[in-house]
Amino acid sequence: MKLKGKAHKFGDNINTDEIIPAxxxxxxxxxxxxxxxxxxxxxDFVKKVKKGDIIVGGRNFGCGSSREHAPLSIKAxxxxxxxxxxxxxxxxxxAINTGLPILESKLAADSISQGDxxxxxxxxxxxxxxxxxxxxxxxxxxxxxxxxxxxxGLMNYVKRRIKQKCTR
Amino acid sequence: MKQTITQKILAAHCGRKEVTxxxxxxxxxxxxxxxxxxxxxxxxxxxxxxxxxxxxxxxIALVPxxxxxxxxxxxxRHCKILAEFAGKHxxxxxxxxxxxxxxxxxxxxxxxxxxxxLVIGADSHTCTYGALGAFxxxxxxxxxxxxxxxxxxxxxxxxxxKFLYKGKFSKWVGGKDLILFTIGKIGxxxxxxxxxxxxxxxxxxxxMDDRLTMSNMAIEAGGKNGIxxxxxxxxxxxxxxxxxxxxxxxxxxxxxxDKDAExxxxxxxxxxRMEPQVACPHLPSNVKGVSSLKKISIDQSVIGSCTNGRxxxxxxxxRIIKGRKVNSRVRLIVIPATQAxxxxxxxxxxxxxxIDAGGVVETPTCGPCLGGHAGILxxxxxAIATTNRNFVGRMxxxxxxxxxxxxxxxxxxxxxxxxxxxxxxxx
Lengths: 168, 427
Hints:
The structure holds two protein chains of two kinds. Chain A contains eight helices and seven strands; from the N terminus they run βαααβαβαβαβββαα. By secondary structure, chain A is an alpha/beta fold. In chain A, strand 2, helix 4 (69-76) and strand 3 form a beta-alpha-beta unit. The longest helix of chain A has 14 residues, at 154-167. The N and C termini of chain A lie far apart (34 Å). Chain B is an alpha/beta fold. Chain B contains 15 helices and 18 strands. Chain B is 31% helix and 17% strand. Chain B folds into two domains: 5-269, 2-Layer Sandwich (Aconitase, domain 3); 277-424, Aconitase, domain 3. In chain B, helix 6 packs parallel to helix 8 (208-216) and helix 11 packs parallel to helix 14 (407-416). At the A-B interface, helix 5 and helix 8 of A face helix 2, helix 3 and helix 5 of B.
């Protein structure tokens, strides 16, 4: 899958309270969650973001609470992918489980500037910065996770496994 | 191969003798939990996938603790989803309001978690039960849905870091200070993806409430779990608190790390002369000694949460405030973490001490810890809290400020109206 969008840069340790504050966790409606995405890190983010745009974070993106509302909110506001130097553990799982594309690359996180236009080939894990004319390779997913991604998220993977067990 | 306690528990749950850090395993889960924020999404995912049966109605805990007593109509709807799901599937461990408590204080107290167990929860502070020698870790709602359906979960076996604490505690210093100090040293991603193992002579003598506080905040260093080898203190806690017999996961499972087990890092600290620690806004790793923060005025002090809302926390705070008054400009909010703790505090007269002093006592809830309700900060306000996170906007307005401390510092600060060493109030 190929993605294209403008980069929105954030710093290190962007936590899930900043991505979607707890005051909005009384709903699971993606529309409401999307309308408040990144609100406590950048109040105007949802006004600026366009469909397909890409969030670029630093170290430990998505740390803090386990709320899956965080990747749901990012997806719902139109962001197509998150690139970061590193992701916090639970956010990483949640992104894979909910089908939010994420890529880990220190070089990309360091090199990309606010507003750069990026083209991403998810299959190859390559990030092309057309503004700076640079290319970065993201870390490949472990094979085990590839299987979940290919199945179309965790629940599909689980359904398939339950079926296999029943027919065995 | 030599194994850590974390490896041993994971291996036992996937029917293996040993597992290697970095490998992926499917493991059997002993207990899973969700709350009023995370479980509605899990239930939605289960229904969307057309899964009509849960794996085991006795091994699922539903704990509506975050926005309860229902703070608004939307939260009430979420709690109703939990109640209906629990009714439909005859979930044994569903805790209705009035019996519910803050999940990570409630489950150990109910004897639902034991040494060697494997527990996952759709809540990041699920790592708390490592204090009992369990492997427990937080995940998202979809992961919880998958476990509710199958009783199994995938894990990447973590590497381990060992933390050895030596020396003697100064007065007013305890588990909260050790863990804040540790996070301050290694940073909020210092244990990312890793198992944190707390050990050494200080831990061996550390009361269970303090151990629970330490394991609770492993996530604040990015840890996957925060584990302590079970010992006599663990056995006594289980017997005395839960009234149940001490039972580990299996007689055949050793719950000690092998002597030559591999660690990515071993930190050894002497804690003698350590003063109470405070994490300053806006990261739990921004830690300083309390004496360097004397000039910080506060508007609110919160004592409670899954980190420090247990009976020993309330006892320390009450001992300091008894006969004194909360500063006239400050709101003191005390939240016993469970109904049993609430009742015990009532019997001991602790609640009276707080109310006499001009404090608020609330029913068990996560409430203000996550900026949910019942103690939200306005723009520009400053709080000191015994909770676990001080991120931007965590307790309310994005331009408010949260300092994290132990209960003694939080209550002393409420009396003085500024961040205060407990010695200043009660030498």
